[in-house]
């Protein structure tokens, strides 16, 4: 039998090592993206546009007079969106103080207040889509939120434009990206430059004052961003919140005055004030907590029945069909919302019933696509309501008891159809999901195995290929894959080719590499007990991700693991010192310090879901009336960083390093002082913080040049230390960049993680613990990741970090900054692991470094591979969008950041090899 030819030249081994790591990186990222592609289809809405022909003209066989039952109720509409407006901002105990005019209007029944439910993800772009189209946007739009594209489908704005309305807009420029040709006059402000919470709102209010005196518009949309920006910077309990809400209150009061005058003059106008999403107690948003998903909706200029239950709520997608009825326009074809009948008090009975019928019929056209629709109680209610409605029309449409029954049946049918439609929106490409899981499993095998010395036959390759195919078919059967898949599309277009060609390429390479490699079983025989325990603990953590509760409270798992590990080492060294002749309690004291610091640092930021609301140190610092405490903790963190760098530096480099560290620390301090979070000296000039950031990057560049000079000297005089020195300098640069992006109270985590890393180095210098380094650094990284306040909710992403030193929204730089800030501890732990190994084994080569990278990548890919299978199995779980999907995005992004760092490090390893190979 013919064999595949394989090169056996030992001189080419390093190139094969580079190929293997690069293949693991590329194939892993492709597999993860493929899984996300199958789990989060980009769009499920059609682009059809409703017309007036879609408005029903008959109810059963009874013709209705369209001009009487479906006509505009209002001439003007003002929609004011207050970004991140929480429900308790208007209904809480401080609402009368924060928004006195609005509170008074609602108290006097001159406005209606509705509790509005928002679907996750609670970010701006999908929420705008929900309000205007009546549809439930896809969860992946939390990522697309950074780059909004035009809505090509139907919306209330498009329908109003077609009916001749003149629409104007001021505020968040996301609207202009979603509706580029809709507005007749507009001025946008950037929603991403979160450092500004004053000008963004002033620009809107300035235009409002002008437009209220003009008569040439019929719909005005306003979107205020300042409240959201304050939330990202300082949280919902910041002293900045009160004046901002009072500012919004003044705007509401001013507009309501004009609306009231217009209504007195029979120029019917409705004024709607709403939040697009809420705000978590930590200040972020994107998750599914009540603080993020409950927002107020206030309506002025229209009377309401006030018969609603205070605990009832409407859905955000109900805004589009309700406005359609008020404006007399066709309901958007994409709408899944229900009309808010409570706002239809001015309508006659025939108008109300027709509006309900139109809403029900529009939903039924989508509902009847379910195969069992005829056998449901929803369908029976729908049919009975129509029959009674037609019968009522044939009795001269007089008010009687029949009307109440018709309304109840219509509302029941509409609500049930809405629930089922919104819960069955997505069609998962399960066959793509299972294929991605197979790929990830193959990559795990490739990354942890070694190359065989024997030649590979076609039979071995085909065996792996057939086994993979059988496993794919088995998973499709388990996960109940449907017939909808891009893999067997009948259309031979670019989209099909772009997906399938890489799939077959990766499949062939995976099968070939699996056939050429084997797991060396003898490697694990010499593992110490601690390494086995750490590996088992890591696997148990991975298995725990199958539970939504363990996902929400993942930090508790890592805190328990970490405190157990530190306690074990403390007990071990205590016993060792008791039995030793020469006693040294220095390392034991460090371990006890770690135990104490853990107790403090875990309270720095409350995280998770169940206990995230509890008081923490960061919240206490931010709510203090003065900045002395915050200033102290920032100065202590920066001082500790300078001291650590000083003591670990060579004596000859200490003066210049001390100077550069001090300058950078001052600039980091000034960056926070200008933001009013720490004390700013009175003599310091007025600044927006841009000059300080320019200086920071300039001195960082000087630091890098100095490091390159040091490496050049090491290349000439001490090649053996070149790799270790270069990794040490990389750790320093990572810490420098992280320090400028961190919140002031989180800067202390950087020196603490370095201290922990130094302690790990001392602990694992002993031969029996040296092989446990990888797991210890992995655990340490995860612990510090959660110390920082991160969680598996998108609300804890610190968006403000992406705009440090930026004047405008720059998506690439913003994304890089947010990624560095979020995964700072994870990457620092990985770099310290490589540096630790290089210190312990000074003769390490790039071959050993590449092997370490592959091992580390393996343990990063294990949880996402298992979690991909879990999310596929749990795709219809109640918490799929609030718990499982955000965690999936976090895992994918973590892999992307870590693998990107590994890819870039290869250039560094190549340089190190060349330095070693060069003759003096």
From TrEMBL:
Source organism, top-level taxon: Eukaryota
Keywords annotated in UniProt: Endoplasmic reticulum, Glycoprotein, GPI-anchor biosynthesis, Membrane, Transferase, Transmembrane, Transmembrane helix
SUPFAM superfamilies: Alkaline phosphatase-like
tRNA-binding in keyword set: no
Pfam families associated with the record: Phosphodiest, PIGO_PIGG
Stated name of the protein: GPI ethanolamine phosphate transferase 2 C-terminal domain-containing protein
Pathway: Glycolipid biosynthesis; glycosylphosphatidylinositol-anchor biosynthesis
GO terms for biological process, alphabetical: GPI anchor biosynthetic process
Family recorded in the similarity comment: Belongs to the PIGG/PIGN/PIGO family. PIGG subfamily.
Membrane topology: Multi-pass membrane protein
UniProt entry tagged with the keyword Transmembrane helix: yes
Protein localization: Endoplasmic reticulum membrane
Chain segments annotated as transmembrane: 21-40, 428-446, 458-475, 495-520, 557-573, 621-644, 656-674, 694-711, 723-741, 812-835, 856-876, 888-911
Domain GPI ethanolamine phosphate transferase 2 C-terminal: 516-628, 730-893
Organism, as annotated: Trichomalopsis sarcophagae
InterPro entries xrefs: Alkaline_phosphatase_core_sf, Phosphodiest/P_Trfase, PIG-G_N, PIGG/GPI7, PIGG/GPI7_C
GO molecular function (one): CP2 mannose-ethanolamine phosphotransferase activity
GO cellular component: endoplasmic reticulum membrane
